[in-house]
Amino acid sequence: MSKTFFIDTTRCTACRGCQVACKEWQGFEGNQTKQVGWGSHQNPPDLNPKNYKVVRFSEQKLKDRVAWNFFPDQCRHCVDPSCKYPADEYKKGLVILDEETGAVIYTDACRDMPKDVFQQMLDFCPYNIPRRDEKTGVINKCDMCVERVKEGLVPMCVKACPTGTMNFGEREDMIDLAKKRLGIVKKEFPEAQIIDEEAVRVLYLVAYKPETYFKTAAAKPGTFDVTRKEALAKMGQSFRNFFRV
Question: Does residue 151 belong to any structural domain of this protein?
Fold first, then answer.
């Protein structure tokens, strides 16, 4: 049975412990970033090759109250990952769907992928997740700490979370936990929902509409109704003929 994250944003305090733990576990060096000048305490401003996870900040005026919505953004490990379509069309085996865990893994061989193929991967991702290091060519994102999970450990972001925001386990257990928590949260926040529950292995519980967190918090309506055949057709015959190996 595959694994799943349950991220309860109603418990998130934006301590960014998950963000730092992920970065340290992966051995990434620091980023040169800036907080001043763009009107947010969020740092860094976006996902990048040295940050698989970023806690997003969104200040919203909702009815008679000001809400500061926090969202620990990361790869959703889609059940049917659309980013894999263009990668497979270029060369099989660059993007792997791990059968044991359900993790979507970008292999080291992705670094040789042409820019046009990577752009197709990014365009196909409904959550705008993949990033590329322009210096090394490496394409990366959250890998579910798959080496830890296969040893019976939880991902580092889950281990570091002090509030219960980050949870991880068997998919059925996480779905049950998410639904129970949703029932509680809805008593105070009627718009609360679990985002894209059937399509992803990273379940987010949000108190308000997803777009109040950021524009790609949820996939656009109908995204997961597109079949693989239809998705490949979108790429165009010329793309497939040119890049097939």
Answer: no
